[in-house]
Recover the amino acids of this structure.
């Protein structure tokens, strides 16, 4: 068997405005409205077919999940056990479909920050597995099927022909067909399967790509603590009565324009970027007040929370302006942040 390997970058995102609407009584999920923008802060996921010579007993039996190794500056914030990238593997057939795999995840996006790192990693796993399925299917079509072998155990015994059928089904999945699988993992996964800027509505599964032409830079600030998404949504105490999104059209128009933001438009931009979680989180820790004061003194276009926190960001008209602001951050405030840096939006 060819020991194919695939490596993908997994970008972070920021929410350019986030309205949390009503809660669905049946599922407990909340409808939302947000514009999401991918940025140039990346995790990196590498998925490889495991060398048969180095398999564990469970892998040799063909029943084990991929061996997941995590490195990087925020590796200590997540666990391999129960990681959502393994959920992506299971959704695409797991060991019934794929030979033993190894995965390495370089974790550069802080966990619990509202920057979508876990969702981005899961989306990358879906894409990587689809590409591996295509490679293995191609091997089989090139009369190398004898080299496409899977270990078998009593609990996990399928014929070679059936496994190749499953691989072919995964290899044939379209981007659109991956979306419902992504939604089963997490609401933000669908966004990371598409374009780098999009209007996201519904429960996160309705993705409308935007042709962003507006350039800006972001200054990210992530406090020492994280925010648990589920707890944050429960704290909003939304009812089940349908609500309509009140914002988004103006912001979308600005993002798709090339005109610079006029001084008298800044209040409107700030209003459009409002996040439903901000009032909750800003009461939790004084670091948000200190960051707000700092950003206000640096001539930012706007500043807000991303996702359900804990990261917040400030927008600037250029990377140079963002770097100048970053250089002015007081040391005592920097000591209360686990990440602080200038980033640019990814262009699609």
């Amino acid at each position: 068997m060819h020991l194919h390997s695939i490596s993908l970058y997994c970008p972070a995102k920021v929410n350019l405005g986030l309205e949390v609407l009503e809660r669905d009584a049946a599922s407990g999920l909340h409808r939302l409205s947000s514009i999401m923008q991918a940025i140039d802060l990346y995790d990196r996921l590498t998925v490889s077919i495991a060398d048969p010579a180095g398999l564990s007993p469970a892998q040799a039996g063909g029943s084990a999940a991929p061996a997941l190794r995590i490195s990087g500056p925020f590796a200590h914030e997540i666990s391999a056990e129960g990681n959502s990238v393994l959920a992506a593997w299971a959704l695409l057939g797991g060991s019934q479909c794929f030979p033993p795999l190894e995965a390495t995840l370089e974790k550069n996006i802080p966990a619990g920050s509202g920057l979508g790192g876990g969702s981005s990693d899961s989306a990358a796993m879906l894409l990587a597995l689809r590409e591996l399925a295509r490679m293995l299917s191609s091997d089989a079509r090139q009369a190398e099927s004898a080299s496409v072998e899977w270990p078998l155990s009593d609990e996990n015994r399928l014929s070679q022909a059936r496994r190749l059928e499953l691989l072919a089904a995964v290899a044939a999945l379209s981007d659109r067909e991956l979306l419902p699988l992504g939604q089963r993992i997490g609401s933000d996964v669908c966004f990371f399967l598409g374009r780098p800027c999009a209007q996201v509505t519904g429960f996160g599964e309705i993705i409308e790509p935007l042709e962003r032409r507006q350039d800006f830079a972001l200054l990210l600030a992530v406090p020492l603590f994280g925010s648990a998404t589920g707890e944050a949504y429960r704290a909003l105490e939304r009812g089940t009565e349908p609500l309509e999104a009140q914002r988004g059209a103006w912001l979308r128009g600005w993002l798709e324009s090339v005109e610079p933001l006029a001084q008298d438009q800044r209040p409107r931009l700030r209003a459009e970027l409002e996040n439903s979680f901000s009032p909750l989180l800003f009461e939790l820790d004084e670091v948000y007040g200190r960051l707000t004061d700092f950003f206000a003194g640096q001539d930012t276009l706007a500043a807000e929370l991303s996702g359900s926190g804990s990261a917040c960001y400030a927008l600037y008209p250029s990377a140079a302006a963002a770097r100048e602001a970053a250089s002015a951050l007081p040391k005592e405030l920097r000591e209360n942040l686990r990440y602080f840096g200038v980033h640019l939006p990814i262009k699609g």
Remarks:
- Strands lie at 5-23, 30-49, 67-71, 101-106, 197-201, 206-209, 217-223, 302-305, 312-316, 337-343.
- The chain has a mean pLDDT of 90.
- Residues 117-144 form the longest helix (28 residues).
- The chain is about 35% helix and 25% strand.
